[in-house]
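Re: [ENG-882] Designed sequences occasionally contain unexpected residues at chain ends

Forwarding the minimal case from QA. Structure tokens:
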């Protein structure tokens, strides 16, 4: 089944508005199978805010979502929705009494119910007419108004995602929890669906916690991004704050591959074969790692100025050249991305320059 562009979706601005809530994790501890999975996990989402939880596999992202949903009990700390405690040690308010919506990776649609019945399922508390009105408005918004009598298996992957979205926002929850909502969609479709989903979340003004392991997705969707590591937040901020000022080398590595050069601070600079990098605030003698992003951190040219090097690998990635460049004085090649240039080939001698704006320096232990 083919999927078309965003024109498939209904009119923007037509999703019903939720009464967004504050969602607060306060020093939440969860232990599973003898392991600490959430460790004094604290995070507060303001009403209407979209926060993305980003982290390696096993860092505890899904567990945090299950805790918010009331599916996973906590062993310490508390979860509050609008200041009401919904989880604490020995207390778990059931999922259906929390005013939350859920949207999972596999969409969890009911296969034996029609598209319309899937959406109506979450609206059982309303009268028949009100429920039908709300369900049909949600289906219209996601462009499925003409599919209400079909069954989920008759929809494409992208359409199933839309149905899952319609079902989760139709009851106008005050908090929406989304676990890897786009991971089963192919890359081409993901961008449109992501953009439309974001627009629906904004329209409903629902407080949203989105789990993803994709940094780009987190940066596009989140008002704030929380980087989770071993069940704790390693860093939280806007996408641009975390990208520009990652808290440590691991956080920086999460957002892009890096070329890393070990150095020692002397005269306020970290020396590298590509030239010195200013490191204000670090004492002379401090061992550091200079981390260079492949896009923007370095540039190469066939002519001076720059440090001499040679292209030893090159892939063309639809308009972008991904190159490995060996430079005198370094044991490992530098990774470099720049707009494709057919005149630059493997084996070519080049000159490499550093752009300190896109270079990060971290003190080593
Ligand atoms: N029921 C369980 N019993 C024992 N260990 C569990 C259980 N559920 C999760 N874990 C462990 O808790 C850790 C965190 O799991 P969680 O699913 O929250 O991670 P995640 O960050 O969402 O990972 P992924 O991106 O792979 O989904 C993992 O090491 C996992 O193996």
């Amino acid at each position: 089944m083919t999927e078309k562009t965003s024109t498939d979706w209904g009119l923007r601005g037509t999703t019903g508005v939720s009464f967004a809530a504050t969602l607060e994790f306060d020093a939440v501890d969860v232990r599973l199978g003898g392991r600490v999975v959430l460790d004094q996990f604290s995070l507060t989402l303001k009403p209407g805010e979209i926060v993305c939880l980003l982290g390696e596999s096993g860092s505890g992202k899904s567990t945090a979502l299950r805790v918010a949903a009331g599916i996973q009990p906590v062993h310490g700390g508390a979860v509050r929705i609008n200041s009401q405690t919904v989880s604490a040690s020995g207390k778990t308010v059931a999922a259906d009494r929390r005013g939350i919506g859920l949207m999972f990776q596999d969409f969890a649609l009911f296969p034996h119910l029609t598209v319309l019945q899937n959406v109506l399922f979450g609206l059982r508390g309303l009268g028949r007419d009100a429920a039908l009105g709300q369900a049909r408005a949600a289906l219209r918004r996601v462009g499925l108004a003409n599919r209400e009598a079909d069954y989920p298996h008759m929809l494409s992957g992208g359409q199933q995602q839309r149905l899952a979205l319609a079902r989760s926002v139709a009851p106008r929850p005050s908090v929406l929890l989304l676990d890897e909502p786009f991971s089963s969609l192919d890359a081409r479709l993901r961008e449109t669906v992501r953009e439309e989903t974001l627009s629906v979340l904004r329209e409903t003004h629902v407080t949203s916690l989105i789990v993803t392991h994709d940094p780009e997705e987190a940066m596009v969707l989140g008002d704030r991004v929380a980087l989770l590591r071993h069940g704790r937040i390693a860093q939280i901020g806007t996408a641009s704050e975390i990208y520009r000022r990652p808290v440590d080398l691991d956080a920086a590595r999460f957002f892009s591959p890096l070329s890393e050069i070990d150095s020692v601070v002397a005269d306020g600079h970290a020396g590298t074969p590509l030239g010195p990098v200013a490191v204000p605030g670090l004492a002379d003698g401090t061992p550091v790692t200079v981390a260079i992003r492949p896009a923007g951190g370095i540039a190469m040219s066939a002519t001076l100025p720059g440090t001499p090097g040679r292209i030893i690998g090159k892939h063309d990635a639809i308009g972008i050249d991904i190159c490995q460049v060996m430079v005198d004085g370094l044991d490992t090649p530098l990774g470099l991305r720049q707009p494709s240039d057919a005149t630059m080939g493997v084996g070519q001698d080049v000159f490499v320059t550093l752009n300190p704006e896109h270079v990060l320096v971290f003190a080593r232990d």
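QA comment: On inspection the terminal residues look reasonable. Residues 32-33, 37, 55, 57-63, 213 surround adenosine-5'-triphosphate (CB under 6 Å). Proposing we downgrade this to a documentation issue.
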